[in-house]
Amino acid sequence: MTTSGTPLDYRSDTLTRPTPQMREVMAHAAVGDDVFAEDPSVNALQNHVAKLLGKEAALFIPSGTMSNQLGVLVHCQGGDELLCETGCHIYNYEQGAFAQLGGIVARTIDGQQGLLHASQLATKIRPRDAHLVRTRLVCLENTHNMAGGRIHPYEQVKDICSWAHDHDLVCHLDGARLMNAVVATGIAATKWAQHFDTVSLCFSKGLGAPVGSALVGDRGVIEMAHRKRKMLGGGMRQAGILAAAADYALTEHVDRLAEDHLHAKTLASGLAEIEGIQLMQGSPDTNIIFFQVDPVIGSATAFVEQLAHSGIKMLAVSENRIRAVTHLDVPYARVSEGLDTIKRVRDQIQNI
Ligand SMILES: *Cc1c(COP(=O)(O)O)cnc(C)c1O
Questions:
Q1: Atom 10 in ligand 1: residue holding the nearest Cα
Q2: Ligand 1, from 65, 69, 200, 323: best to mutate by most atoms within 8 Å of Cβ?
Q3: 176 touches ligand 1 (CB under 6 Å)
Q4: Ligand 1 centre distance from Cα of residue 131 (Å)
Q5: Phi and psi for 201 in degrees, rounded to 5?
Q6: Is residue 1 classed as helix, strand or coil in its secondary structure?
Q7: Residue 240 in contact with residue 39, Cβ under 8 Å?
Q8: Could you report the average pLDDT of every consecutive run of 10 residues in the chain (352 residues)?
Q9: What is the pLDDT of residue 352?
Q10: pTM higher than 0.90, yes or no?
Q11: How far is the CA of 223 from the centre of ligand 1 (A)?
Q12: Rounded to the nearest whole angstrom, what is the distance from the C-alpha of residue 204 to the centroid of ligand 1?
């Protein structure tokens, strides 16, 4: 066991539980029926998010998946095509909902460790021709989850979006962890968001709220998203209890993301020193680490299982790959304790 006995759960930043202060705010949240647009806490959150991202309007949505899919559905019709990076969440981890719900197809483009260049997109617009789908939307992800919480460099994002707009395409940002990019770069959320027609932001990742995401954009687009959210069954009633938690998270838990980033860097450099472990990237940009285990250690699943017995939880994502994510519920103060435990587990394997 780790010395304090409480497991260090690095599987995901979705595991964060509301803090006592957040629960306090939730308990006292003013509520109303949000389907009637009468929930003051939801309205306050939506105003807060719209302002934070410099857009006209925002909509509170039950999950990041629904928020992304609404982002696609407001821009595309059946027979339209979206362009996205091969490893992105919208394409891989949302059941291809854009195809199921909207008759929309996706064309994937391999990024360099998740990052795209405008030059890669240049040839991807289909000519206008009755045989072909209509290229309509570019989706980016920032930070990029499967690329290890990687920050899409600002200039590249700007170039891609300006190229897209020059070619009558619209742009959606899966900004589930946009605030991680904001904190790590010091580039304001409004600056990142200004290049996109819609942005989706998650409250339930590193920000530590129990539930919810928001979609932001201009008023017309958000009105359309509001209609479609109801169609998908995402119209919530006294959602203010949840919105209050999200609002609290935006106020209190953004700056502290820097601690998660420092934690990830320290954890990664410690992992890199362990024989048989290789980082998939250099020092992490934000709060996500992917590393590979050599056959001498065994399979990722077996190693993860042994770590769990010793109080360290991580996620095996393939036969030899493991993901670790730092967040609010894993204190940075325990990082060396965690690393010592990982070393011990690794050495025990070696001794067998
Ligand atoms: C978590 C996540 C989402 C949304 O996931 P939900 O589980 O539906 O909230 C979207 N995009 C990325 C990059 C994510 O990591």
A1: 64
A2: 65
A3: yes
A4: 34
A5: -130, 135
A6: coil
A7: yes
A8: 77 97 98 96 98 98 98 98 98 98 98 96 95 98 97 98 98 98 98 98 98 98 98 97 98 98 98 96 96 94 96 97 97 96 91 57
A9: 53
A10: yes
A11: 22
A12: 9
Residue from 179, 253, 200, 222 nearest 62 by CA: 200
What's the CA gap between 54 and 235, in Å, rounded?
24
Helices (H), the chain: 20-27, 40-53, 64-73, 89-92, 97-102, 118-121, 154-166, 178-185, 189-193, 219-231, 240-252, 257-272, 300-309, 335-351
DSSP per-residue codes, 114-127 = TB--HHHHTT-SPP
CA atoms within 13 A on the CB side of 310: 19
Counting atoms of ligand 1 from 1, which one is nearest the CA of 88?
A: 13
∠ CA 66-319-283, rounded to 5°:
75
Which amino acid would we find at residue 235? Answer: G
pLDDT at 2: 55
Could you tell me the two tokens for 47?
């105003």
